């Protein structure tokens, strides 16, 4: 039962191992999870990372006055948590206090591989062109401002992290349209 967290980390590790042994999916291509170059089993590595984060939970709790960016930077100090993954954590935590009151709630985003390609497509650049993170964020914020009036007419307000996610999807669509290379996962309408 995924709503029952009582097994603890060791119990959940056993559950994940059992799922893997049965041939069930444990990882998918949505997030590239590596062992940061360590020769270690991926499941062992992830549960070691989770245990470390749990031990540091007092230090990791967001505080009133934190910005999404400052919290993103704090999480990024941990081995195994890169910029993209920490931004995904922030994307979830921003809907509860104290991060719900962060001054950069609407404007914070961190790039990922897909959103960097997506912004390149929109700007007419080679999709593989590199970005400095600050330059990417400035262009993202300009795109956010430029599209806001059109989206508002349709009753849509996108914060920067939603726009970042849309750029990732745009990248997949453009790659499929221009190269015929289909996305790794099939879209299923529910």
- Overall average residue pLDDT: 90
Element-by-element helix/strand order: HHHHHHHH
What's the number of extended β-strand segments?
A: 0
> What's the quaternary structure here?
single chain
**How much of the sequence is in beta strands?**
under 5%
SS-based class: mainly alpha
Summary?
This protein is an all-alpha fold and 190 residues long. Helices cover 54% and strands 0% of the residues.
Describe the protein.
- By secondary structure, the chain is an all-alpha fold.
- Helices cover 54% and strands 0% of the residues.
- It is globular.
- The chain is built from eight helices and no strands.
- Helix 4 packs across helix 5 and helix 6 crosses helix 8.
Structural key phrases:
single chain, 190 residues, mainly alpha, 0% strand, globular
Please write out the topology.
Blueprint: H1 8-21, H2 42-55, H3 57-60, H4 68-75, H5 83-93, H6 113-122, H7 133-153, H8 160-179
């Amino acid at each position: 039962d995924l709503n029952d967290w009582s097994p603890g980390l060791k119990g959940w590790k056993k559950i994940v191992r059992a799922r893997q042994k049965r041939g069930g999916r444990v990882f998918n291509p949505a997030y590239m999870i590596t062992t940061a170059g360590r020769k270690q089993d991926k499941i062992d590595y992830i549960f070691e990372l989770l245990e470390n984060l749990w031990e540091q939970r007092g230090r990791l709790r967001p505080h009133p006055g934190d910005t999404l960016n400052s919290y993103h930077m704090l999480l990024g100090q941990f081995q195994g948590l890169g910029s993209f993954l920490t931004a995904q954590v922030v994307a979830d935590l921003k809907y509860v206090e104290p991060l719900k009151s962060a001054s950069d709630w609407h404007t914070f985003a961190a790039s990922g591989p897909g959103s960097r390609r997506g912004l390149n497509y929109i700007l007419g650049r080679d999709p593989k062109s590199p970005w400095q993170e600050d330059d990417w964020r400035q262009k993202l914020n300009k795109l956010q401002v430029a599209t806001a009036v059109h989206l508002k007419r349709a009753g849509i307000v996108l914060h920067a992290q939603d726009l970042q996610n849309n750029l990732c999807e745009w990248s997949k669509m453009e790659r499929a349209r221009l190269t015929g290379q289909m996305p790794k996962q099939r879209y299923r309408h529910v």
